[in-house]
Design brief:
Layout: E1 2-4, E2 7-9, H1 22-29, H2 59-71, H3 78-89, H4 109-115, H5 120-138, E3 144-155, E4 159-173, E5 179-182, H6 191-196, H7 199-204, H8 209-213, E6 228-238, E7 241-250, E8 258-266, E9 272-280, E10 290-297, E11 303-312, H9 318-321, E12 328-335, H10 342-353, H11 369-390, H12 399-414, E13 424-428, E14 435-438, E15 441-445, H13 446-451, H14 455-470, H15 492-495, H16 502-517, H17 525-538, E16 587-589, E17 596-598, H18 632-640
Parallel strand pairs: 13-15
Antiparallel strand pairs: 1-2, 3-4, 3-12, 4-5, 6-7, 7-8, 8-9, 9-10, 10-11, 11-12, 14-15, 16-17
The structure holds zinc ion.
């Protein structure tokens, strides 16, 4: 919701592509209909200077909204209801694994038990039916899909180390089978890197995005009892979700490409939540990768593909040596399932629950040229952020942004700075290590936040970006015009570009070092230096991970020590210090809305040398939960299964 000073306006995007009809035109003309409405702005404050203010709702308001939503659910379209479920799920109560309650106390458990299948073949029937429904559900969506592949080679001291990589980002189209529209492979600015990869790139052509995406389905045209033998293994918990585990074996003469491996089926609706294995059988001409595919619950009976780890080959394995390609590991992430972005739905919700009230007209006047200039720049920033959030490339504002803004605040306070408009932080969803600044908005990629070893190294990266802000480095204010935000999704990376010049980078390094030297982080810059050194050492093995798509690469040549040299103790780090974390070490993606959360498990501090896996790909082990469903059935299920095998893999 924008506030153009005191007149609150409802903004609708109007464009030939989005709404070609005359209706849209009418809406535009009603755009600033000066409808007077009141809101209790518990979360945001009406900043007097800024013409456009984005309000963030407090939790109470969210709860209130949710209630209204539930009451009016029948009037609202499906996606909105899904969003309501999501909101419900975000209440803290849903997060508690309540396994300590006594079993069989809850009446709610009784009716459910009556419908439960009693024989193994009834269970298998349920699983097959449910998976057919699940496939129909998945086919309605087109999430973003990102695959990052690392080849590896043997290192005598460290075990497997990265040896070349490949990065794929695209929009999945499940309605037409398994297809991906690539967003990053059409770029001329990446040419240098592809060229320098030489040998690897020739093999890299085998890694088609659709190949990895195939692993979201177990068997898209024959998942049934006629093609597979199901063998019950045991019960097992994945996080707080109790599962039945089955081994699947294709029956003889059922054709190629059938799944061989293990499936985990949650025991309320019999949805498959994880499958681990391969398509087979392999032959000399066709080779299938092993994979571990996870689905995440995003609402009632809605388990969507979210994370896939795949791997093939090992340098000690004789068979690998005869393969046509180097051994590799790959992570695939899917997110952005919510159609059109969750944020927009909340805006509309807000519109529906607001009631008309009085105007606040005391401060009414046009802006001075300077204020107008500032507010125009802010508008351009907001437009870029909104546009990228809608594409699923920018995370909705949330917890991780607040963590970054705390660091910004620490730098501001200790350097005695008061920046207007305030400096904000956002997170780019990609795994590539990059950062940039647009106006007063600092953007770090999720991948970069993931691998940073500690807060001080995060502060160093932010201090560099803050340097860009303070030096007033160029930003494209054309994005203040809304027509500049209309482009084909495939063109995203060529349409937007926020990279800095070499001179700007050097200046930002100097300014950043100055900020750090007066900050609370001034005695801890040792880890930041270690991080930059580690990244520099590895950079030739992970060229695609460090290639930015929108911003700047991490400034590995930045000598932070030269400016803040008052900390001799930080020069010699302890032997067990980790210079950088593996990919996915910190931030968790919620696949429906694209929201980000800091992982609760703290990074392990002391590890063996071979366990230090900076910038490397590791398997996923998820703590599965059910969204919006902390009901007693779950409690009973969890408690009664206490004696079962609940070991995690
Ligand atoms: Zn920079």
């Amino acid at each position: 919701m924008l506030i153009i000073r005191n007149v609150r306006c409802l903004t609708f995007a109007v464009g030939l592509k989005a709404r070609p009809d005359a209706k849209g035109e009418r809406r535009l003309s009603q755009n600033c209909s000066s409808v007077q409405m009141t809101v209790h702005f518990a979360g945001g404050s009406v900043a007097s200077g800024a013409p456009t203010v984005t309000y963030r709702f407090s939790e109470n308001i969210m709860r209130f909204l949710l209630n209204v939503l539930l009451v009016t659910a029948s009037l609202i379209a499906m996606p909105l209801v899904k969003s309501a479920q999501l909101l419900a799920a975000q209440q803290p109560a849903a997060q508690e694994p309540a396994a300590q309650e006594p079993a069989a106390q809850s009446p709610a458990a009784q009716p459910r038990a009556a419908q439960q299948p009693t024989t193994e073949s009834q269970v298998v029937d349920k699983i097959v039916t449910r998976e057919q429904e699940e496939m129909r559900l998945i086919r309605q969506f087109s999430p973003l899909v990102e695959t990052y592949v690392q080849n590896f080679r043997e290192n005598k001291h460290l075990g497997a180390v990265p040896d070349g990589d490949k990065y794929l980002l695209g929009r999945a189209d499940f309605s037409r089978g398994v297809e991906v529209v690539s967003l990053n492979d059409t770029q001329s600015k990446n040419k240098n890197f592809l060229g320098s990869m030489g040998n690897f790139f020739a093999f890299g052509k085998q890694y088609v995005p659709a190949g990895f995406l195939q692993m979201v389905f177990i068997d898209s045209d024959g998942f049934n009892q006629g093609n597979y033998k199901f063998t019950y293994v045991r019960r097992e918990f994945l996080g707080e979700v109790r599962c039945l585990v089955f081994d699947l074996t294709p029956l003889p003469k059922t054709g190629k490409g059938r799944f061989v491996g293990r499936i985990w089926v949650e025991d309320q609706d019999y949805s498959i939540v994880r499958f681990n294995g391969s398509f087979g059988p392999a032959s000399l001409t066709s080779y299938y990768f092993s994979f571990d595919s996870w689905r995440v619950n995003t609402g009632k009976k809605q388990w969507l593909p979210a994370f896939i780890y795949s791997q093939q080959g090992d340098f000690q394995d004789a068979q690998t040596k005869s393969m046509a390609f180097k051994p590799f590991k790959a992570q695939t992430r899917l997110w952005g399932y919510a159609p059109g972005g969750v944020g927009e739905e909340q805006e509309l919700t807000k519109l529906l629950v607001e009631t008309p009230v009085k105007d606040q007209a005391e401060k009414a006047d046009d802006y001075s040229p300077l204020l107008a200039e500032r507010s125009w720049a802010r508008q351009a920033e907001d437009n870029v952020m909104d546009s990228m959030e809608r594409l699923g490339l920018m995370a909705p504002y949330g917890d991780v942004d607040k963590v970054l803004e705390t660091v910004v605040n620490n730098l501001e306070v200790t350097n005695d700075l008061d920046i207007q408009p305030e400096v904000r932080c956002r997170v780019l969803m990609t795994s590539t290590l990059e950062s940039f600044t647009i106006g007063h908005t600092i953007v770090l990629s999720r991948g970069l936040i993931d691998v940073l070893p500690d807060e001080a190294s995060l502060a160093a990266i932010i201090a560099h970006e803050f340097g860009h802000v303070l030096l007033g480095h160029h930003m494209d204010t054309q994005f203040g015009f809304f027509n500049h935000l209309r482009f084909d999704e495939k063109e995203t990376f060529s349409h937007f570009g926020f990279g800095s010049t070499h001179e700007e980078e050097q200046a930002a390094n100097r300014k950043g070092a100055e900020l750090l030297s007066k900050s609370p982080y001034k005695d801890q810059t040792g880890t930041a230096r270690l991080f930059l050194q580690a990244l520099k050492d590895r950079s030739k093995d992970i060229p695609n991970l460090i290639s930015p798509h929108l911003g700047d690469r991490v400034p590995t040549n930045w000598a932070i020590a030269s400016e803040s040299s008052a900390q001799p103790s930080a020069e010699k780090p302890a032997a067990n210090v980790i210079a950088a974390l593996p990919l996915g070490g910190r931030v968790k993606i919620e696949p429906w809305s694209g929201r980000l959360q800091m992982l609760k498990s703290k990074p392990v501090s002391a590890v063996a040398e071979y366990e230090k896996i900076p910038f490397e790909i590791t398997p996923f082990v998820l703590f599965l939960t059910r969204q919006g469903d902390s009901s007693s059935t779950e409690v009973v299920g969890a408690a009664s299964a206490k004696s079962d095998a609940n070991t995690r893999p």
